[in-house]
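Hi everyone,

Forwarding the result from last night's run.
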Amino acid sequence: MPYLVSFHMGWLIGSVLLGFCMGWISVVQRGNGTSKVTARWLAVLVAALAAASFTHVVPGRFGYWLDLALIMFACYLVGCTIGAWLRDRVVARTAPPAVL
């Protein structure tokens, strides 16, 4: 794992920055999002992939790619969270009070 992080540091920073940008932009869009059933299936899929990564079920090159994809996905989600949180803080401060 430290090898993945040290060797792919540029890509991991890029995924954090991309996540930050998407988190900043996504606060503006107010779509329906995913359904609860789809969200549960996606959560089960991510949990199964993480379990496969931790138990080293997938050997060789594909296991390496799985580990790298999960690390990049985690970095992307951290960037999204930070970007959305900062956007909320900035917009909340600069928004004029509502007039009724």
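The mean pLDDT is 85.

Cheers,
N.
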